[in-house]
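User: For my dataset I need records formatted as: sequence, then structure tokens, nothing else. Please produce one.
Assistant:
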Amino acid sequence: MMKNAYKFLGYFAFLGVIIFASSCGDDDGGIDIGDGAGTFSVSDGVYIAGISGTDVSVSTAAVLNSNMVEGPDFGTIERSGHLVGYVYLTAGNYVFAEIDEQEILNQWGGTATTTDGSMTLSGAETSEQPSEFVVVSLSENGAAFAVGTEGVYHVVFDTQSSEALLTRVTSWGVIGGAVFESACVSNGFNSDVDVVESSSSADGTTWESSGIILKGGEYKIRFNDAWKIDRRTMVDDNDPYNAANGYVALTNLGGTLSALEEGGSNITLADADAGTYTVTVSLSDAGVISLAIERTGDAEVCAFDIENFTWGIIGGATFDDWNTDQELTYANGDGGVHKWRGVFPLDAGGDGNNQFKFRTDDTWATKLLPTNVNVTDNTDAGTISDDGATNADGQWFLADGNSGLYYFEVTTDDFGVTWNMTIDEAAFEVIGAATPGGWDTGTVMTYNDDLASATVTGIALTADEYKFRVNAGWDYNLGGALTDLVFNGGNITATAGTFDITITTADGGVTYTATVQ
């Protein structure tokens, strides 16, 4: 081991994820290091350190701090021996050094490999990781590893997995429902509005963009268009964040403007503060990262346009979980009343993942929550609830054991100032001149308890026309070709005989088909 072989490298700069800077006083238990022009103090801890020959160069700005990793429900959990920092590195060779009372207590190096971020260790593809990062397989007293490009790096040092991660921070972005790409359209939590690098050096790095539209809602910042780096070798469905299987490092910052935390909660902007902003992310020479937003003008008012209100349902109870929306169909704007309708299978299998929400355009630009929509719930008491007293997010819940098809109608009669929703359990029926009840009375189909279909058995048809509708009304009806039923589609021609008819959705209610056997 090496003792008292330290030099100061002025080109280091550090940003702690749990943000606090290292002290430089002589009374903090640190290390006094001579650099030929005086002394300074380096606190005890683990550092990424430059190395030249046998000389190890340590800077107060390059210390790594204990940090949280991803936990359940978009939260964070502790992980022993998981250290993180944002550090300005010049091109050169590096090791990790543990400093204790003016000595290098331990030193680690290893083999560095550039990794494609599109795949995880468990084999799953992901779009949530940086496009590439460097993995260093660590060993005590291992060889130094090279950093080839100067810049700010997100550095992870994980003792449990004996590895380090280095990701060069090429960009920052602001993301969330409060962030709008135009007057009416928010990117939601799907894509960033870029905050571009304006200056970068050991004295500090700044990313800044002007004219960004922020409205009431939530947002965060993240680097390289990434949410996290998944280093789990396997994902246990029963315990997905078991430390023995690895960890998920976080690449986003939230919390508050005055106290950013990696993986922290969303930052909230009040409705009254909507406007255009200059957004600045800074890494100081003292190792402190900060986020500043400066209001520069009023945000353009969104004019009502149905193209800006593509309503969809999303959530754990829906066909594609929280990944993509199942969209409602726009019905009409007769009499100034705009209507969107849909029939969707909802799963309430008792796994606790029975939530769903409504939002527009696959983003969180506009949400229909129990707190901002007038709801008429025609389902049985307790089938659908919002748990408003305990649920700050306002999402809806489907009670266990109530899986099935549900009909939703969303309307506004004042151009989006207020919204209304009607919820019903959905019963398809076959109706028309070809059916026993003619065009007056439909034959009800039976839900098949498969989250996909409903069937009527042994129905006698004549050689005439029919179609499908929901809940004995024409608000939601389907016709056209059996292989591609469409809302308000044309009548279907029947062949005389006795048949079993099944209507089916393979995409969670976006489209329907039917079979006649």
